[in-house]
């Protein structure tokens, strides 16, 4: 009996093609909107909205107690930074971590993804 082996690289490639790469060393990690919502809902993390006030048509719902960056001095608990995008939030997360706030992560996909997943918002 002759047995032949074939490689199945095609399914392996497609299986792992959607996996995001790890953030660079020292860069803040990402938190999914649903995980951020659950953490804020149960008081396990604070949300910090860093979008400019003039650019906010809607905000994270006030019942989740979103904060401003300036309100976090001396904060020892986990913080999730909400920006319009990950790129907008990452520098703020780095500054907060440098001030000893933390651990600090960034909301994956920014506020747009929060709203897209129909998580609680309110008019600004």
TrEMBL record:
<feature type="domain" description="Rhodanese">
    <location>
        <begin position="41"/>
        <end position="123"/>
    </location>
</feature>
<dbReference type="InterPro" id="IPR036873">
    <property type="entry name" value="Rhodanese-like_dom_sf"/>
</dbReference>
<protein>
    <submittedName>
        <fullName>Rhodanese-like domain-containing protein</fullName>
    </submittedName>
</protein>
<dbReference type="InterPro" id="IPR001763">
    <property type="entry name" value="Rhodanese-like_dom"/>
</dbReference>
């Amino acid at each position: 009996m002759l047995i032949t082996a074939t490689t199945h690289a095609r399914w392996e490639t497609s299986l792992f093609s959607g996996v995001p790469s790890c953030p660079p060393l020292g860069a803040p990690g990402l938190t999914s909107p649903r995980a951020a919502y659950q953490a804020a809902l149960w008081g396990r993390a604070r949300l910090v909205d860093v979008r400019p006030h003039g650019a906010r048509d809607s905000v994270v719902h006030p019942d989740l107690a979103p904060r401003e960056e300036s309100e976090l001095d001396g904060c020892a608990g986990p913080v999730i930074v909400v920006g319009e995008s990950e790129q907008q939030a990452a520098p703020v997360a780095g500054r907060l971590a440098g001030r000893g706030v933390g651990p600090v992560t960034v909301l994956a996909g920014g506020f747009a993804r929060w709203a897209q997943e129909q998580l609680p918002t309110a008019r600004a």
